[in-house]
Write a structure and sequence with these properties.
This protein has 410 residues and is mostly beta strands. It is built from two helices and 24 strands. The strands form five sheets. It has an eight-stranded antiparallel sheet, with no helix packed on it. It is globular. About 8% of the residues have low confidence.
């Protein structure tokens, strides 16, 4: 079993981080990390060649930003940055050859706590969904420009949203975490660009974050829920569209953020939980989640988690931003780089690197959708054995017939 190896944290600039997202700003193969900094300018940081976590962009305005997301809204091949906040309008900063410039501002302020780029209407360009308190908004992308928002309602106080095609019908469905008052978490099915209630959790509790992954690798998407006052939950899609809670021995941890990422590169997505304490990583070993020792770091309120490849080494890295803490004694922004996997006896370092799956394989924090493993192989193997048996029997019969003809010769 491979070990989860993360290097000691690299600390970054001060920011009261509410949300973080990874994206390759300058298309050099190294991911940058954007942070929504409430009450301060939003920032983008990168890992320098010297191994320091440096600021490369600062937003021109300082608002109550609580969400940030990357996406190519103008379809020019690079990622653009969207931010939204509580009481401020959503904004998109267009990526012009690695430089972010203000490209669009919503006409109305929102009470946003999460925002995501997603192709809602299936027209191959990404729309912007802004969720928060009260009415949520979908800004429809029409050829690189956003039309007036379409109002939707996900819940009284939507803390987090997560998109995935859970029913595998070709469009993105939405799962909402509700935090304002005890409420069920709601799964919405996408029907021709409209969200219809499909399922909800049976208990009414507060939730702070949700995340999708095929945690049991059965070809169907499952999800986890972070709860600020109750234990985290894991829900498995037992059959298409039907979810059952997975028994999981974990205490309540005041969780604020949750993330799936295959840190040990064993093809099973591991679960990272951000809370008001050191980070916890739950290793997924063949559907069994086991807590790793807490990662080094101070007991600050972790609001933001993101995964990407900060140094282009093919291993997932883990980015963390906290909302509180004194920057001098409790740095709020830090990056854990993925380490080398342990080598088996007789395997040198280069061979060990060759054993690591490619980045496009499962486990980079994106929803994992796979066909059930081994089914086709078993079918072809069975057919091969049947054909081989037929060939042997036919060959034996032909040989016996030939021998009979020899016996009849004078």
């Amino acid at each position: 079993m491979l070990a989860i190896v993360l290097q000691p944290p690299v600390y970054g600039p001060s920011c009261h981080g509410f949300q973080a997202a990874a994206g390759d700003l300058d298309r050099d193969g190294r991911d940058e990390f954007a942070i929504a900094c409430t009450g301060e300018p939003d920032i983008v940081v990168t890992l320098s060649e010297a191994g320091t976590l440096d600021r490369v962009w600062t937003s021109p305005v300082a608002e109550g930003s609580q969400c940030v997301t990357w996406g190519d809204y103008d379809d020019d091949g690079d990622v653009d940055l969207a931010v939204a906040g509580y009481g401020s309008p959503a904004r998109i900063y267009r990526n012009d050859n690695g430089v972010l410039n203000l490209g669009w501002t919503a006409a109305e302020p929102t009470q946003s706590k999460d925002c995501e780029f997603a192709d809602i209407d299936g027209d191959s360009d990404v729309d912007l969904v802004v969720a928060g308190s009260g009415t949520d908004q979908i800004y429809v992308n029409e050829g690189g420009g956003f039309q007036k928002a379409r109002s939707v309602f996900f819940g009284d106080e939507t803390d987090d949203i997560a998109f995935a095609d859970f029913d595998q019908d070709g469009d993105l469905d939405l799962l909402a975490a509700i935090s304002g008052k005890p409420s069920p978490e709601i799964l919405f099915r996408n029907e021709s660009g409209s969200f219809l209630r499909h399922w909800e959790t049976p208990a009414a509790m507060q939730a702070s974050a949700v995340a999708w992954a095929d945690y049991d690798r059965d070809g169907k998407l499952d999800f986890a829920i972070a709860r600020p006052n109750d234990p985290e939950e894991l829900w498995r899609q037992a059959s298409p569209g039907v979810f059952e809670r997975v028994a999981w021995n974990q205490p309540a941890s005041h969780a604020r953020e949750i993330l799936w990422v295959d840190l040990d590169r064993d093809q099973w997505p591991d679960l990272v939980v951000g809370r008001e304490a050191p980070l916890v990583v739950w290793r997924n070993a063949n559907r069994t989640l086991t807590a790793e020792p807490p990662l080094p770091g101070d007991e600050v309120l972790i609001e933001a988690l993101a995964t990407g490849d900060a140094n282009a080494d093919g291993r997932p890295d883990l980015f963390v931003a906290a909302r509180d803490g004194d920057q001098d004694t409790q740095p709020r922004v830090r990056l854990y780089l993925g380490g080398e996997p342990p080598m088996a006896p007789g395997v040198d370092q280069e061979d060990a690197r060759d054993m690591i799956p490619d980045r496009n394989d499962a486990g980079w924090g994106d929803p994992i959708i796979e066909e059930p493993r081994g089914l086709l192989a078993r079918i072809f193997g069975f057919l091969f054995k049947v054909l081989l048996l037929v060939a042997i029997l036919f060959g034996g019969w032909k040989a016996s017939e030939y021998i009979k003809t020899l016996d009849k010769k004078p």
